[in-house]
Amino acid sequence: MGMTAAARDEQKSDRTRAGMIPGQLPIGLLLILISWPLAWSGTPTWSEHTFFPLWLGYILTVDGLTRWRSGDSLLTRDWRRFVLLFLLSMPLWWLFEFANQFLGNWRYVQARPLSPLEFALRSSLAFSTVIPALFVTAEWWRTFAFFQRPRRWLRIAPSRRGLLAIAGLGLSMFLLSLIAPQQAFPLVWLGLFFFFDPINALVGNQSLAAEVARRRWDTVLVLIVAGLTCGFFWEMWNINSLPKWIYVVPYVDRPKLFEMPLLGYGGYPPFALEVYAAYNLMFGLLFRRRDRYPRFDAAAVEGAARSGN
After folding, report:
1. pLDDT tens, 261-296?
2. Segments forming the whole domain that contains residue 263
3. Cα separation of 94 and 62, whole Å?
4. How many structural domains are present in the chain?
5. Residue 146 CA to chain centroid, in angstroms?
6. Which helix (H) or strand (E) holds 107?
């Protein structure tokens, strides 16, 4: 099937933009170059204000690199939707903060005492960067040939009843991690994915369940790599920052890479899957339709391929 005129124009425009230095790239790099030394300066007057600009710098830099390589990116595609990623990220991480009240797996070291209101406001601003960071990273990895190819593997296609059972299992895993945190704490990084994603599949939202039912595992792969990439930068920038977080993890507290126990990095791949599932669930609840904004998932890649045939 041939491309429409609009699709041809868009593809031509993307090719034209690819290779050009996008505006967000130098802005992002500048934010990193300023914020990183200040975050590690040991001077609380400066360091306590650096988390958001540092991660905004990362987000703009990676988004700019994506546009430089492909001619397209999340920010240039729709800046309003880009802002929405930040807004949806806040309640998502507050959910994990709620879980941590039972788990006690991490705590924050502040530069100075904060009132509950100031802590909530500062934390919400910091938490707003989680979804954008993961999504721009996933889109960047998708610009490389290895991640552009379809990854076909095992077909897993449960029935509606099976999806309901998986969702029930996921919720049970999450609740068990809160009830028995000493023994079941890792389940917090698995349970919400197995709860949210089947619900997305059942109600028609974008879901990984629908993709693996078609033997497509490339979105899973790119999210895993994006999770590990962001995890490295989260932990690396955290190590000498103030404020910072430290971990209290049963059984696997050593060895460490930065503040994170080495085995703890195994939580970042399922966390990235949880973020993707949670985002699609929130978007579906808000707008009552399937989201087509991120273009790192298999459905978006297939759509682009069809328009290019």
Report:
1. 888 899 999 999 999 999 999 999 999 888 888 888
2. 5-307
3. 25
4. 1
5. 20
6. strand 106-109
